[in-house]
TrEMBL record:
<keyword id="KW-0694">RNA-binding</keyword>
<dbReference type="GO" id="GO:0002161">
    <property type="term" value="F:aminoacyl-tRNA deacylase activity"/>
</dbReference>
<feature type="binding site">
    <location>
        <position position="351"/>
    </location>
    <ligand>
        <name>Zn(2+)</name>
    </ligand>
</feature>
<keyword id="KW-0479">Metal-binding</keyword>
<dbReference type="InterPro" id="IPR045864">
    <property type="entry name" value="aa-tRNA-synth_II/BPL/LPL"/>
</dbReference>
<dbReference type="InterPro" id="IPR002320">
    <property type="entry name" value="Thr-tRNA-ligase_IIa"/>
</dbReference>
<protein>
    <recommendedName>
        <fullName>Threonine--tRNA ligase</fullName>
        <ecNumber>6.1.1.3</ecNumber>
    </recommendedName>
</protein>
<keyword id="KW-0547">Nucleotide-binding</keyword>
<comment type="subunit">
    <text>Homodimer.</text>
</comment>
<keyword id="KW-0067">ATP-binding</keyword>
<dbReference type="GO" id="GO:0004829">
    <property type="term" value="F:threonine-tRNA ligase activity"/>
</dbReference>
<keyword id="KW-0648">Protein biosynthesis</keyword>
<dbReference type="Pfam" id="PF00587">
    <property type="entry name" value="tRNA-synt_2b"/>
</dbReference>
<dbReference type="GO" id="GO:0008270">
    <property type="term" value="F:zinc ion binding"/>
</dbReference>
<keyword id="KW-0030">Aminoacyl-tRNA synthetase</keyword>
<keyword id="KW-0963">Cytoplasm</keyword>
<feature type="binding site">
    <location>
        <position position="475"/>
    </location>
    <ligand>
        <name>Zn(2+)</name>
    </ligand>
</feature>
Length: 626
């Protein structure tokens, strides 16, 4: 069963038509309903619930009571909502479960209303909007038949884990999330709501999808599994530059680059145990009579390399890195959303061996700062993302000053998730999370301190006395998945566009940095000369040689977010100059070509370069969409 629980000022509905051939019989009075100051519980009864409906009812009632006590709600509105799941139970089973939940809640002393089952209904709802106002829950009956390969204990435990939520200020004040004044921190409020609700399903298309399609960057691939995308030339260029940029940053930081397989044996003892500690769903591959899983991170291969290596304390901290193209996670179909959440993604993945907690925490802070630097390079500042730091209560008591320093470094309040006991393999974790135009959040950079896997995989180092010890391991992705970075860049530009600001890619990522527009055929030779000079300076340039009018050519360049547009006519050709229109400030100036080259090179210095991804002349280009 899946439930979406919304603390509401009111919920009202009106029956419109039958959704099932034989819906629940109802009276005229039941065709409309309203309840105020209510906890609205939208629920889908799933096929798995058929194995033990009574258990599902009891578990659901416990969860609803728990949420109702947190938000202090005495009224419950049970609302059948099939859209939460694609694996629905038989209608007769679903109706009985809903009826029994209604009865049990009434027995518990709640005022309860239930919307009729099997009908299309219009409804209106007013959500209260506090951090606990939107929550989701998943009920799994213990009798559900799940294969060994599909079952993931970490995912099940994550559903059951009790979290305590706070906001930590840079001044060191730890405030319960419901008591924090979010005035001036609206993005943090949205992020807290998203994290606490655990509702990952996007109910409409995020704006970056429109942008990635309009710009012919990325597209859905109907010939593959959902969440596996195709990249057109401009999208592949952006993705490739991001991959190169992050890799160079990590190697510059001191990591050694390796490459490992994408497929691993289910029966490998260390890997099998790790699967049950990592909350991700696997793709399963059969080869002969053996079963393998596709990796969902670079951990597996890197851990096995470290296990076989001879490591001295003098080698520590030892950093190993791989850009995984691809990692795979079998995300739920309802959670797939453009570039935000995929089933195949590219993850820059660094693992650092540290001899003790002191060294691990020192590395953690350095990698926290490295992540900030990496995101700044792609145009994302701390104003664009929110920070989550997660740990146990014991870690907080023993290392409070260290955690407060992390909030001080970022310079703003951060969301804290605290647990009474540790379940996961890490004792400390941070993420930088981008909150998009639908108020959904996606983790970008992250670092974790892992206290289990060195022992699980047999990874050791020789200490100063020559004795073997198990180290700690840091998991770090300084940017998060490359696709997520593209998503964040596009979503940020969609926000700017909505505010009336011209959207743009960072100059070093712009597929075409300069467009040359000749005003007539007679100056085409000069346009090509200008383009040649720019290309020789490693600047991505193209020439609009189409028969469109000048104004249309300029509008086309604007629509493509071209940073610099050069218009050349007879005067420019005779004087050997160029007239440049800058997208950044809208100014149009006449200048020497060498000065333009110097200006552009100054802005892209330190970033990787790749040549133009498409033919020089616009007339030679195919159209990939429409």
């Amino acid at each position: 069963m899946r439930m979406l629980l919304i603390h509401s000022d009111y919920l009202e509905y009106e029956v419109k038509d039958k959704a099932l051939k034989n819906p629940e019989p109802i009276s005229e009075e039941q065709k409309k309903g309203r309840l105020e100051e209510v906890l609205a519980v939208f629920m889908s009864v799933e096929k798995a619930d058929e194995t033990n409906p009574d258990e599902v009812v009891e578990k659901a009632v416990v969860e609803i009571k728990d949420v109702a006590s947190q938000v202090k709600a005495g009224r419950i509105f049970v609302y059948p909502f099939a859209h939460l799941s694609s694996e629905l139970a038989k209608p007769d089973v679903a109706l009985k479960v809903l009826q029994r939940i209604e009865e049990r809640l009434m027995e518990e002393g709640f005022e309860v209303k239930r919307a009729p089952f099997g009908y299309y209904k219009a409804f209106r709802l007013s959500c209260k909007g506090h951090p606990l106002a939107e929550l989701s829950r998943t009920i799994v009956p213990s009798g559900e038949a799940v294969s060994k390969e599909e079952r993931n204990i970490a995912l099940e435990k994550e559903e059951e884990l009790k979290s305590y939520w706070y906001v930590l200020t840079p001044e060191g004040e730890l405030i319960e999330v419901e008591k924090f004044d979010f005035t001036g921190h609206e993005n943090l409020r949205k992020f807290a709501n998203y994290e606490i609700s655990k509702n990952r399903i996007a109910d409409r298309e995020p704006p970056h999808v429109r942008l990635m399609l309009e710009h012919e960057l990325v597209d859905y691939e109907p010939g593959s599994d959902g969440g596996n995308l195709r990249y057109y030339p401009k999208g592949r260029l952006i993705k490739g530059l991001l991959e190169q940029y992050v890799t160079e940053k990590v190697i510059e930081y001191g990591a050694m680059e390796v490459e490992t397989p994408i497929m691993y044996d289910f029966e490998h003892p260390a890997l099998e145990k790790y699967l049950n500690r990592f909350p991700a769903r696997q793709y399963v591959v059969k080869s002969g009579d053996k079963k393998f899983f596709l990796r969902f991170a670079a951990c597996f291969g890197q851990f096995l390399i470290k296990k076989d290596a001879t490591i001295s304390y003098r080698n520590l901290p030892l950093r190993m890195y791989e850009l995984t193209r691809y990692s795979f996670r079998r995300e739920k179909s309802g959670e797939l959303s453009g570039l935000r959440r995929l089933r195949a993604f590219t993850m820059p993945d660094m693992h650092t061996v540290a001899k003790d907690l002191k060294q691990a925490m020192d590395e953690f802070k350095k990698q926290y700062k490295l992540s900030m630097e990496v995101l700044r390079g792609v145009g994302l500042t701390p104003d664009d993302y929110e920070v989550a730091i997660r740990f146990t209560e014991d870690f907080w008591k023993e290392n409070r000053d260290f955690v407060v320093e992390l909030a001080r470094i970022i310079g703003k309040p951060v969301l804290i998730e605290m647990w009474k006991q540790r379940f996961f393999y890490f004792i400390l974790k941070f993420e930088f999370n981008f909150v998009d135009n639908l108020d959904k959040a996606a983790a970008l950079s992250t670092v974790q301190i892992d206290v289990e896997n060195a022992e699980r995989f047999g990874i050791t180092y020789y200490n100063e006395e020559g004795k073997e010890e198990h180290p700690l391991i840091l998991h770090c992705s300084p940017s998060g998945a490359i696709e997520r970075v593209m998503y964040a860049i596009l979503e940020k530009q969609a926000k700017l566009q909505a505010r009336g600001t011209k959207p743009a890619f960072p100059l070093w990522l712009s597929p075409i940095q300069v467009r040359v527009i000749p005003v007539s055929e007679e100056v085409m030779d000069y346009a090509l000369y200008v383009a040649g000079k720019l290309e020789g300076a490693k600047i991505r340039v193209d020439v609009d040689d189409t028969g469109d009018r000048l104004n249309k050519k300029i509008r086309k360049a604007e629509k493509e977010w071209i940073p610099y547009v050069i218009v050349v006519g007879r005067n420019e050709k005779e004087q050997g100059t160029v007239t440049v229109r800058r997208r950044s400030d809208g100014r149009q100036v006449e200048m020497q070509l060498e000065d333009l080259i110097k200006e552009i090179k100054g802005q892209v210095e330190g970033f990787p370069y790749r040549p133009r991804p498409l033919p020089l002349l616009l007339s030679r280009r195919p159209k990939f969409r429409g």
